[in-house]
Amino acid sequence: MRTQLTYILALFCICLSINSMAQGKRKTQVEIRGNQFFINGQPTYAGRFWKGNKIEGLLMNSRMVQGVFDDLNPETVHNWEYPDTKTWDADRNTNEFVSQMPNWKAHGLLSFTINLQGGSPFGYSQSQPWINSAFTEQGDLRDDYFLRLEKILDRADELGMVPIVGFFYFGQDERFVDEKAVILAVENAVDWILNKGYSNVLIEVNNECNVRYDHEILQPERVHELINLVKSKEKNGRRLLVSTSYGGGAVPKENVVKYSDFILLHGNGVKDPNNITAQVEATRKVPGYTDQPIVYNEDDHFNFDQDLNNFTAATAAYASWGFFDYRMKDEGFESGYQSVPVDWGINSDRKKGFFKLLKEITGF
């Protein structure tokens, strides 16, 4: 009997230990205080100024949405073959992503956007026959996707990084059977993140809510319902910070501004850096704006060797900026962070230009 009780007690202790790990004594916690981001109680880039511009409190980032990518359509998966193996490998993709994260951080990158339905592997696409979704059609979680996501979020927590986890992408949202499935997907994903104890994660409900979404709840007039759903879910007194984004150059509507913890902007289509400044100023004038941090988490304009570019313009306007890079026509494997298969290293001239300027601005 004593042996049996000892065994039961040991098993109970193991269960408690596993549960404690799941709840997480995590290393990294993100907060928003006023218009600044804080990591572990300290403002990001503490005390940093660059060319007279305040950098402290910003969250410089890059669009790395394909970190958990897979293609469940056997008719299209051949498009993503690695040049060396002539086959696609979702686990290799995630493992190589994770291996490069310390390198990104060493250049001053504190955040990156990852999306549970990815993004166009061609940069921009009119149609999306591939099937890339961490959710089933009914809104349940696909375990293999979330195992890959866990690798990334665990490493980010260890490194002191703050991932922006996006849930939905236009062209893939139509795979949900109905609105109830969309809502269930949000609930399941938020519960998973909270139950894992992550305190370093920001949420982007969907990428560019004003672009081609099938379900009305993912469109501009109603997307705030999902923002509020995320905010309503707590565990141990903690909830996730949440927003959503609009397409390039757009200023978000009042309902999104009012309920978001931070404001996401996109610079696609904004060729004149002065219009980045104008976009930020217009956003701050939207009714409901209460000095939340403004974050660009997608912009495909570069010119990093010039004094004035979209990155420096956003910085001067005290808005965080995010690099969006895809493999353009006739470019090699090393180019583009959104084009699958992805070379997650800093190997192309464009990537080198971004990370060089990032390091200079952030003082890393």
Automatic annotation (TrEMBL):
Leader sequence residues: 1-22
SUPFAM superfamilies listed in its UniProt record: (Trans)glycosidases
The alphabetical list of record keywords is: Signal
Question: What name does the UniProt record give this protein?
Answer: Cellulase (Glycosyl hydrolase family 5)
Q: Which organism is it from?
A: Algoriphagus pacificus
Higher taxonomy: Bacteria, Pseudomonadati, Bacteroidota, Cytophagia, Cytophagales
